[in-house]
Fold:
Amino acid sequence: MTTAGAPTKGQGPLAGLRVVELAGIGPGPFAAMLLADLGADVVRVDRPGTPQLAVDPAHDVTNRNKRSVIVDLKSADGPARVLDLAERADILIEGFRPGVAERLGVGPEDCHARNPRLVYGRMTGWGQDGPLADRAGHDVAYIAVTGALGMIGAPDEPPPVPANLVGDYAGGSLYLVVGVLAALHHVRETGAGQVVDAAIVDGTAHLTAMIHGMLAAGGWQDRRAANLLDGGCPYYGTYETADGAYMAVGALEQKFYEEFLRLLGLDELIPARKDWTRWGELRERIAARFKSRTRDEWTAVFADSDACVAPVLSLREAPHHPHLAARGTFTDHAGITQPAPAPRFSATPTAVRTAPARPGADTADVARDWRVPGLLCAPDGDDA
Structure:
């Protein structure tokens, strides 16, 4: 952990850790938010001009718990300002295409020349090498080539897009965070920093490890809606209710399956659990039962059971679910309902400490706390 300058007060297990985030969109900012949620002092280096996303910065939750400075990396002294920050940081995160950071003068070699202990995290879709490394892309393309997208949906319809959760955030952000924290451990053991190449295609492929094992063992068919966990199984999926809403069913184990059918009033179908020839009948009967009542009525039926059945809620409904409300899974801060930091820690609790950072709003504080007076000479928001 760096000791340059006065430590920044934080809250959580990463309090005292310093992170530089070179502003981008998608998985990079989310990874930096996770580090900030865990207590790290994350300084986001925004570029001059209009934010990249058409979202009011006051509502960009991925920038909560961070501070922001504005640096024009294309200006004569812009790279030096970033290198001043990197010299005092433990981790730097960037999400440029391969080679861009080097051309801007803030690549790994430039940063390590100033701070050999720095963990340099690189977030891309295709990775730092390979035939597609220099190509543009987005989540849907990355999860498509890894086989993950091809597992989702009905066999006679196009695969549905699971927002950008599987690629950008699960296969990208979370792997970057694991990578930089592992590399930070290496720093503390050896004193040497390194580069972490976090490619969304790598992380997403890694997420399918269990499925590949099942495929090799003959327990998974390489086609959609034909398997236990992909909607092929009638007691693991979703069903429409009388009011056009949906219930989710995950009654995989025998005892849960039996309780599920008993509460549906379909006890006679219990023997069909492992009889694939009866799965069509089982699905039709279950679907018909669910269509006979509303989502709220079925929620009440299964409320005190171990049948593994839950209502499918919308984003606005989710914070009001009794269990999530009791745990405080969502929180309200600065007028925004948002997920609370996760996971939870017994000795070093986390919290949403600050509203989303406004571009450049924290320049003076960061210049003082990190002892980088040159930041005060940086441009304050005009387009480069």
